[in-house]
Amino acid sequence: MRAAVFFFLLTSAISLVGANFILPLTSKIPRRLSKTLAHPKFRNPQSVVHLDGASFDSEYLINVTVGGQLFQVILDTGSSDLWVTNSNFSCVDANHTIVPPETCQFGPAKFNSSASTTFEPASPNVTFFVQYGSGEFLRGPVGFDTLEVAGISVTGQKFGIPNLNHFLGDNVSEGVFGLAYPGLTSVYNVAENGSLTQSPYTPFFFNAVEQNKLTEPSFSISLDRASLEQEENDPFDPKLGFFAFGTSVPVPVLNASITVPIQGYGDGFIPSDASDAQFFWYTIDIDSYIFPGSENLLTKSNNTILDTGAPMNKVPSRVAAAFNALFIPPATLNENSRYVVECNATAPTFAVVVEGEEFTIDPRDQIISGKDADGNKVCYSGTQDGGPDVPGNHFILGDVFLHNVVTTFNPIDRTMTLTQRAPY
């Protein structure tokens, strides 16, 4: 899920199906040996594409063509919509007062519906609306057009074109490409009194399956880490990972691999394995976290989302506290209850156990460079406090974890495969 802003101070959120409210999840930082190689088995060689890094490599960007117009958008497995910036947008402040458009800091491309020969507007009685925990929001019309991602083209795809935006971007990205389930989509029916009722629709991946565009109904992702120097000196970092439809990505991997079920939900968003369970995020159960001294803790956690739109991990409070005390020198909590570390600190070892398989995280991923609200350099722990392990709370394995694995998502079979990457 896309960070609401590119400072660590603010919170992100998830829209819930059938609900007119936002569930705040986590705060995010600025946006950010036996080897085997994948054997391609896809129909279209363009189904494997590079990802680019942006916003201190807290975001991973993918090219999307909408009605013949090219955009760089954030790849996000924690949300479901595709939205791109409207050519006729207004930028507003928190009080809904119009401010200069550059205040929103969108990238240069904007969608112009009149320049597309395949665009069809949706009913004026529906709207696209997403709000983040920081108070940022985007709202505007909905349309249908031909979308192309990684060589896969889908016709008649519904997407958002927000034209009223209270937003702080990165001057690079021009939207978000969500890959989660339809229940998280952000299109709403608008009643006469202005109230909104969610109207779930079929996102791009699921449309590609329905239109028989994929030989295998899956997608795979590998996210590369950048150096601290690169993160500090350039907001854009090309070729920082791979995305593939219907095949794995071409990076060296090890033998450690496991396929796990995606967690469904029943009433009240309680995890459920029932046949009528609903699916929203790519959520799995964690057996345990392993780090020095962890054998003395209960570290199992449920409801853990694999999220390319989240730069860091969010784990149960007791795990975060014990782990962050092991940095040399130890991490400290800042005024916003975030773990801050020295940029030259030594990070402890850390591994995630899923169905008995251990996946290690390179210590280099546990120190994340960023800036505070005043623009000063600061480094954060890559593993932060996600709150208590209680029903209804969700945890996150973000880019810090995903730098170290190849993840293959099969939303139709409701499984995910994690494979440990070779050291790089």
Question: Can you walk me through this structure?
Answer:
The longest helix is centred in the last third of the chain and has 8 residues, at 317-324. This protein starts with 10 loop residues before the first strand and ends with a strand. The protein contains 4 helices and 38 strands. The radius of gyration is 20 Å and the shape is globular. The model is unreliable at 3-46 (pLDDT under 50). Strands 4, 5, 6, 7, 10, 13, 14, 16 and 20 form a 9-stranded mixed sheet that branches. With 424 residues, it is mainly beta. The protein has 2 domains: 11-223, Beta Barrel (Cathepsin D, subunit A, domain 1); 251-421, Acid Proteases (Cathepsin D, subunit A, domain 1, Beta Barrel), CATH 2.40.70.10. It comes from Favolaschia claudopus. This is Acid protease. Belongs to the peptidase A1 family. Residues 1-19 form the signal peptide.
What is the secondary structure topology, with strand pairs?
Elements: E1 11-15, E2 22-27, E3 48-50, E4 52-54, E5 59-66, E6 69-76, E7 82-84, E8 90-92, E9 98-99, E10 120-121, E11 126-131, E12 137-140, E13 142-149, E14 152-160, E15 164-166, E16 175-178, E17 187-190, E18 196-198, H1 204-210, E19 219-223, H2 228-233, E20 236-237, E21 241-245, E22 253-261, E23 264-265, E24 271-272, E25 283-286, E26 288-290, E27 301-306, E28 313-315, H3 317-324, E29 332-333, E30 339-341, E31 350-354, E32 357-361, E33 367-371, E34 377-381, E35 383-385, E36 395-397, H4 399-402, E37 405-410, E38 415-421
Parallel strand pairs: 6-16, 8-15, 27-36, 28-35
Antiparallel strand pairs: 1-2, 3-21, 4-5, 4-20, 5-6, 5-13, 7-16, 8-9, 10-13, 11-12, 11-17, 12-15, 13-14, 17-18, 19-21, 19-37, 22-38, 23-24, 25-27, 26-31, 29-30, 30-34, 31-32, 33-34, 37-38
